[in-house]
Here is the input.
Amino acid sequence: MKSAVIVFPGSNCDRDAAMAIEKVTGAAPAMVWHQETELPEGTDFVMLPGGFSYGDYLRCGAMAGVSHIIPAVKAHAEAGKPVLGVCNGFQILIETGLLPGALMRNASLHFVCEKAPLRVENANTQFTSGYSTNREIVIPIAHHDGNYFADDETLNALEGDGRVLFRYASNPNGSARDIAGIANERGNVMGMMPHPERAIDADHGGTDGLALFESLLGSA
Amino acid sequence: MTQFAEGITQEIADSHLPRDEYEKAVEILGRAPNLVELGIFSVMWSEHCSYKSSRVHLKKFPTTGEKVIQGPGENAGVVDIGDGQACIFKMESHNHPSYIEPYQGAATGVGGILRDVFTMGARPIALMNALRFGAPDHPKTRQLVSGVVAGIGGYGNCVGVPTVGGETNFHAGYNGNILVNAMAVGLADADKIFYARGAEPGQPIVYVGSKTGRDGIHGATMASAEFDDESDEKRPTVQVGDPFVEKKLIEACLELMATDAIAAVQDMGAAGLTSSSVEMAGKGQVGLLMDLDKVPQREDNMSAYEMMLSESQERMLFILKPGKEQIAFDIFNKWELDVATIGETTETGRMVLTHNGETVCDIPLDPLAEDAPMYERPWARAIPEPAVLADELSQPKDYEEAILTLMVSPDLSSKRWIWRQYDRHVMADTSASSEDPADAAIVRVHGSNKGIAITTDCTPRYCENHPIEGGKQAVAEAWRNLTAVGADPIAITDCMNFGNPEKDHIMGQFAECVEGMSEACEVLNFPVVSGNVSLYNETNGFAIPPTPAVGGVGLIPDLSKRMGFGCVAAGDILMVVGDTEGHLGASIYLREMEKREDGCPPPVDLAVEKRNGDFVRGEIRKGSIKACHDLSDGGLAAAASEMAMASGTGLNLVHEGDLPLHGWLFGEDQARYLLAVDEANAKAIRKAAKDAGVPLHVIGIAGGDALTINGMIDVSIADLKAVNESFMPTLMGEAE
Amino acid sequence: MKARIHVYLKPGVLDPQGAAVAGALKNLGFNEVESARQGKLIELDLTGDDADAAKARVEDMCQKLLANPVIENFSIEMA
Amino acid sequence: MKARIHVYLKPGVLDPQGAAVAGALKNLGFNEVESARQGKLIELDLTGDDADAAKARVEDMCQKLLANPVIENFSIEMA
Ligand SMILES: Nc1ncnc2c1ncn2[C@@H]1O[C@H](COP(=O)(O)OP(=O)(O)O)[C@@H](O)[C@H]1O
Ligand SMILES: [Mg+2]
Here is the structure.
């Protein structure tokens, strides 16, 4: 399994993402600078990490969404291979149109960092097969703009197709229908605001995030 | 007869330098200074940069020890944490800017202290913040809290360094001068530290980071001026922080530091280009020749004066080894940061600046530094207040109400509203932060099983009533907090926040706090390795309470042995290490229940502090303790309430002996810890205490869902949590 | 040349900032405020002097980056 | 009645957002962009029909809440 983590100026969870991937696969991912135009030969899995690409200026993820590497990421997704965006990575996937909707300023207007209880809504996906549906897990969140918004049609479609993978057990940011993470129609692109890579170690955020990487990458 | 250069009037001169200092400048130059030179003298000789009032006293601090690699004098202190690794840290104030523009003031404070740390080659791993606001009901408080907290979070969250802890007080004494003290901690290889010293003649001076604008011109001198009601008008352009550029700057600088290109480096902090270049030249004993036309500029036709005094943020100055410029240029271009060679070091020993082809400044560097004014300001000792012991005070009518009153009080209430806005987990090495039941924050040394423990402490009401004991206590509490999580305390940084030093009693507070702190550092082998002084925190003659904030750092050799106060189970035996005489002078109890703020604070016996602490740490390492919480504000009642709330297990305390109950519960006697011990270990630990000559008192047993005392007083954990969580949301108008 | 761009949220799109502004204004006693919407104002300094050509380019900038067509509309004034 | 408020940074105050936007536009090949500034656009729906009185009130709202007088200026249009 060959993985790549995209690094944008202002990414700050790139190291955390790499640690999680290495912990599960035993192999360090390639760290790919946003100025590149191609992914490393034979990349199976691409992760867009959290952080504040371009300082979250203009719109979160907007400027990263037009950087040079994005066409390669889109091609990877169109080839049906897995792409995961966490936090700012989720915002970027939305800006590129790989995922529907928008992520608005938190309803409280405050940045919110806490260990958020989530419910696994659909465990029959390549991202969540390591969980069981309706299982409650706790994953840290840390964001200012995680308030998921989409029109009812889109929301109904997401729910109807089982593309809502995680919901907040107690909504921290105002997200429509408590949505914390979604997948695209084909099921190979997933975005979530919570940080599974911060929950892979009992003493540092818990281990509830491990199953996500294991589902995707198979344990080492 | 005073001489003036062309275009300089007495008024202009006065607005830059006191008259005696002006004469000194004339002497040094052998002529009258022009405006650029006047500006440079004024910032270099400002309180902020020259420490002219505080230097004589700061000398008293113990600053050496077997773990100290670099003490005060560089951008930050450096200590040895074993395995060839070093921990770098420093605390700094941004008080005045934060009062004027809370968000940007606090944000740029975080940016500045981060630069002090990564300037030395360290990867920042943690931020702390020590905040003091005015009375909760003061009309400005809500807006100041909201702006400062958003600013600290906005900057720290964006650069991706976890903000893991801090402290927050509210008191009318800060109504006109809030305190925003930020601390940064970083890690580096002990043999890869970078210093301001090391420059040699003939080396290129390279500017990197943001462009220079007219930001905060004279901020350095403003930070040394007392406020009055017009300050709102007199303010210079406020500095705006750009955490996105800072993040790129961190990565780019660490990339350059991994090469062999750097001779010396300085961040551009207060008095930007001036102090950074002068400091490096002074420490390297070289001269400077800089062409200001080469400085990257954000605005049109900036004058030499403006460029030298600008406080634009996110800028660094490197002196590179000859021929290494291209390496730097490639790295900074990759990160899309401005980079320019603006001059070179010389053998002249002078600072020569050219602008538009003309020489606009020519100052001999040594005198600029060495003849900097140093004042032995007159100071007066504080008149000690009498102790206040429990038996002089009537007992509270209702103990349950008293406990709840303390737990909802501004200083003891939960600060969740604040730390929820800080990313405490980024970098995935946070072992304990604000949300966790531990007396110090703990951050894992990446890729190892070691932990760095960090705490900030100061009890201003003690310093107000007895500066010497207050100074001791600030250091002792930091040491105790590190001990309580199982760490070996290593060293401290400090941030000395005081009023106007030109007043005897204020200078006296400073001198006596330093005296007390120094004694504590000595006895506890806890040296000062960095720090910062903020004076003139005074408005219309009202000075802040003396606030010598202490930032302590310690090492946990094996993270699996770290301690907290959340793991308490029914049946655990509760014990207090240390004796209780019931000191209520300057206590939270006295303030909240008796509405009195007088009295001598609890005395600090440093020998006892050390003995008790070493015992507790030893038992933690042996694994004989399940939970440990130091006793401080609010005494046993507060510590027990916090332990009960954190563990969700009730604590049932029994008081025997003739000390009045309110003295036993609320006394703030020092050198004490509350322990929860598994019954199986109780006997052994009591014997160990006896052998070590450490007083250890069994005070009860865990169980149930309430804090109870002598079976009569009964406060449910639910009620404790409800009041404890209610203060901040109510203050901010966000209570459900 | 200068271009001034207004970026607004489309009607029906959630606007937490606008809602908060309206609420805060009411708390301050400005009861005449029925609702508030918050958008962006972006001003560009441009080289060149062909206003129409420039405007077409700015349109393009908005499509590509400055506005998110899913949730935002924009308008452009050249000056 | 509607009020449209422009809030922009005072001249000389650093505008990190504007700088980043200008950089991103250049990266997209819009090399004519010399600089960008970003401000806020706030639209209020107001009850009442006395435009002058309303405008005075909106001034007041800007002073008290909508603009930060330390770093921002504002302008108001009634419509
Ligand atoms: N109160 C203090 N205690 C110990 N060291 C101090 C104190 N105040 C200043 N220093 C030291 O003096 C030097 C200059 O301080 P400062 O101007 O705050 O540093 P910087 O210019 O990097 O912000 C630093 O090395 C700092 O550690
Ligand atoms: Mg410095």
Summary: The pocket of magnesium ion (ligand 2) is lined by residues B 75, 116, 267, 269 (CB under 6 Å). Residues 220 and 270 of chain B are 5 Å apart (CA to CA).
